Amino acid sequence: MKTILLTTDLSEASSHAVSPAVSLARKFGAKIILTYVGDLFPPMIEEYYVAVDLERLRKETEQRSNTALAEYAAKNIPPDVVVERAVSLGVPHIEIVRLATERQADLIVIATHGRGFISHALLGSTTERVLRRSPCPVLVVRDPGSQA
């Protein structure tokens, strides 16, 4: 195992996946690619996207996402672990699978939020979609505070 793709949405729940990923990276001498998928069109902007400079919005969103991911990495990943950061904008499960394929990840580590049956039925699950499409094994880490 050389490459571990560790996903985060920068939430407390997703931070539960960090420890297993770090342990595996140390055990196998693997690098971690810490990835965050940002939303280019937050809900309140979608109504007004015609009037928005999309290129400027993309650059600003990417810059904010890179800054947030760098802070998250500094706070959560120990300095002895090799980590690269990867930010993309789009649909999370699509971008995670694309990045895993491009970077030839040996493992994806992802946290599940366990929102409950109704929320899952209505919204679906990024974790479930990654599991179905992943080019490599996926380690799913359950949030200890979840309802699942």
Short description:
With 148 residues, the protein is α/β, with parallel strands linked by helices.
Question: What would you note in describing this structure?
Answer:
The chain is 43% helix and 22% strand. The longest helix has 23 residues, at 54-76. The chain has helices spanning 18-28, 43-46, 54-76, 92-102, 117-123, 126-133; strands at residues 3-8, 31-38, 83-89, 107-112, 138-142. The chain is built from 6 helices and 5 strands. It is globular. Helix 1 (18-28) links the parallel strand 1 and strand 2. Helix 4 (92-102) runs parallel beside helix 6.
Instruction: Report the total helices.
Output: 6
User: Residue ranges: pLDDT <50 for 5 or more in a row?
Assistant: 118-123
| C-alpha termini separation | 30 Å
Mean pLDDT: 84
Radius of gyration: 16 Å
Q: Briefly note the structural class of the backbone.
A: alpha/beta
The biggest beta sheet, please? 5 strands, parallel
Q: Sketch the topology as an H/E string, one letter per element.
A: EHEHHEHEHHE
Overall geometry comes to: globular
Total strands:
5
What topology, given as strand order, has the largest sheet?
A: 3-2-1-4-5
> Roughly what fraction of the amino acids lie in strands?
15-25%
- The helical percent reads 40-55%
Quaternary organisation: single chain
